[in-house]
């Protein structure tokens, strides 16, 4: 699961995804759950196909929520549960998929017995385009609309790099840890992800090969709460 990432700036988003990022609220230099962040989706007001950039809460607010501040985390969604889990099945079925731009993302490594934060960039220097779902929730009391999104993950137990992340669960064996990884969408697959069918989108739910990553312990160590 990812709980911290760094988004690119406006210029890099425009250059990488050919989309204007202006006239949107600013976002933080580092994004944590429930903070505002940018995401790219199929434009809602275009009868054809184009992309738009939106700023919303990192933590999807489902339609049945009674308030925008949820008491449970929805910043990550297991891809294996999208079709059935109440929070995500409607956005998944409706094709409310998005790209989450990330310059880097961080994961905890516990191989030494304590948390050492690792930072993950792309080896080619480009930003990540991470798979996500978005939703719009309307406050029934005020009529205010809230944009939000979640970051998709896949089981990474067999991945030689991502299976090294996160604290092991002592209650289960080494083959039952359910280590997780984000899901990168490559540049040439963006349109398939945003406008394709559910079947076509499902084909893109795969882990990135090790050579795509430029990863290692953060130096100096992060002065942030683990």
3D architecture notes:
With 226 residues, this protein is mainly beta. The protein has one domain: hypothetical protein yedk fold. It is 11% helix and 31% strand. A hairpin with a 6-residue loop joins β6 and β7. The protein is globular.
Spell out the blueprint of helices and strands:
Blueprint: E1 5-6, H1 10-17, E2 36-42, E3 51-58, E4 76-78, H2 89-93, E5 97-102, E6 104-109, E7 116-122, E8 128-138, E9 145-155, E10 180-182, H3 190-195, H4 198-202, E11 213-217
Parallel strand pairs: 3-9, 4-9
Antiparallel strand pairs: 1-6, 2-3, 2-5, 5-8, 6-7, 7-11, 8-9, 9-10
Features:
globular, mainly beta, hypothetical protein yedk fold, 226 residues, four-stranded antiparallel sheet
Give the structure's gist in a few sentences.
This protein is mainly beta and 226 residues long.
Q: Name the shape in a single word.
A: globular
Largest sheet: 5 strands, mixed, barrel
Q: What is the level-2 CATH architecture name? A: Alpha-Beta Complex
DSSP helix fraction: 10-25%
Distance between the termini: 13 Å
Kindly report the name of the CATH homologous superfamily: SOS response associated peptidase-like
Number of helices: 4
Q: How many β-strand runs?
A: 11
Strand order across the largest sheet: 2-3-9-8-5
């Amino acid at each position: 699961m990812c709980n911290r990432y760094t988004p690119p700036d406006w210029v890099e988003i425009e250059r990488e995804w050919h989309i204007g990022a202006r006239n949107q609220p600013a976002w933080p230099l580092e994004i944590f759950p429930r903070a505002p962040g940018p995401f790219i989706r199929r434009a809602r007001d275009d009868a054809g196909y184009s992309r738009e950039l939106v700023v919303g809460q990192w933590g999807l607010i489902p339609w049945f929520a009674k308030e925008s501040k949820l008491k449970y985390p929805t910043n990550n969604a297991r891809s294996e549960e999208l079709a059935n889990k109440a929070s995500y099945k409607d956005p998944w079925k409706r094709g409310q998929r998005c790209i989450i731009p990330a310059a880097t993302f961080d994961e905890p490594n516990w191989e030494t017995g304590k948390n050492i934060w690792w930072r993950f960039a792309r080896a080619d220097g480009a930003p990540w385009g991470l798979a996500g779902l978005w939703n719009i929730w309307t406050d029934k009391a005020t009529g205010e609309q809230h944009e939000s999104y979640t970051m998709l993950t896949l089981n990474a137990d067999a991945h030689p790099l991502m299976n090294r992340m996160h604290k092991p669960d002592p209650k289960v064996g080494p083959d039952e840890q359910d280590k997780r990884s984000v899901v990168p969408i490559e540049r040439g697959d963006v349109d398939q992800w945003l406008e394709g069918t559910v079947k076509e989108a499902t084909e893109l739910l795969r882990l990135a090969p090790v050579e795509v990553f430029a990863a290692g312990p953060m130096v100096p160590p992060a002065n942030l709460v683990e």
